[in-house]
Amino acid sequence: MKLAAKDISISLGNEQIIHDICLEVKAGEFVGLIGPNGSGKSTLLKSIYRVLKPVAGRIFLDGDDLYQLAPRESARRMAVVRQESSVEFDFTVLEMVLMGRSPHKGMFQMDTPEDMHIGKEALARVGMTDYSERSFFSLSGGEKKRVLIARALAQQAELLVLDEPTNHLDVRYQLQVMDLVKQLGIPVLSALHDLNLAAMYCDRLYVLKAGRIVASGCPDEILTADLIREVYEVETDVSIHPVTGKKHIYFFSSFGVT
Ligand SMILES: Nc1ncnc2c1ncn2[C@@H]1O[C@H](COP(=O)(O)OP(=O)(O)OP(=O)(O)O)[C@@H](O)[C@H]1O
Fold first, then answer.
1. Does the beta carbon of 47 lie inside 6 Å of ligand 1?
2. 13 close to ligand 1 (CB < 6 Angstrom)
3. What would the pLDDT profile of 153-170 be if each residue is shown by its tens digit?
4. The ABC transporter domain covers which part of the protein (predicted)?
5. pLDDT tens, 43-64?
6. Which residues of 47-84 are buried (b: 16+ CB within 10 A; e: fewer)?
7. How many angstroms is it from 5 CA to the middle of ligand 1?
8. CA 92 vs CA 30, 98, 124: distances in Å
9. Does the pTM exceed 0.90?
10. Cβ of 32 below 6 Å from ligand 1
11. Which atom of ligand 1 approaches the CA of 211 most closely?
């Protein structure tokens, strides 16, 4: 599976939020989308998961124009974990995860034993088995996030789109989710705030500023103190971590507290 977005522009109200963005995620790649608050990461992702149609440009999934595909077909190919989940009714955790199976089934078709197996396995992978019968509404923010990731896993899609998947997670589950996603072996496009996680896990990054891509490439090449200053207006010390061999970013407080 390959995702290619070509010359995407998106407007909201009278304002152009995304300007002529080209982006590609190749088979097996973990691609990160980084940039400050309001730079347009979620807006761009929304156009990729078909919530916001671009005013210009086209998006291709394995050469097929995304907006020409039936919604069920794009749901079979692409799983999404959004930043906020809009769940209207209270479902159990297992029911939430089983919703991930719906693109594979006919209307009103019951869950098969195979669906149940896939759903339970997905819950086990995010460490949420013991919560199967709990109400989704009763979960903490981090627990909800893990369930939504399990739902995306249960969907068994060929491409995963994530909007800040580690938001709300404690450090153990941040690493667990990133490991899990990395191991899937399917292409992943993920908005990320944590630059150290981006450096550790991403094969390539796109850096957004004010709706434009200002840098792209592998983290080792593009994550520099100059780039971070230009994009985030923060001073950093960027080094190579002696154990991981990956870029490690230390942030300096602007109040002189180091
Ligand atoms: N409905 C809307 N009308 C006008 N502007 C909007 C609308 N929705 C979002 N915006 C603006 O679009 C810009 C990009 O927002 P977006 O949520 O894509 O940024 P982001 O990079 O995901 O930010 P964050 O890191 O804070 O989640 C912001 O300036 C936001 O205020």
1. no
2. yes
3. 999 989 999 999 998 889
4. 3-235
5. 999 999 999 999 999 999 999 9
6. bbbbebebeebebbbeeeebeebeeeebbbbbbbbbbe
7. 19
8. 31, 10, 15
9. yes
10. no
11. 14
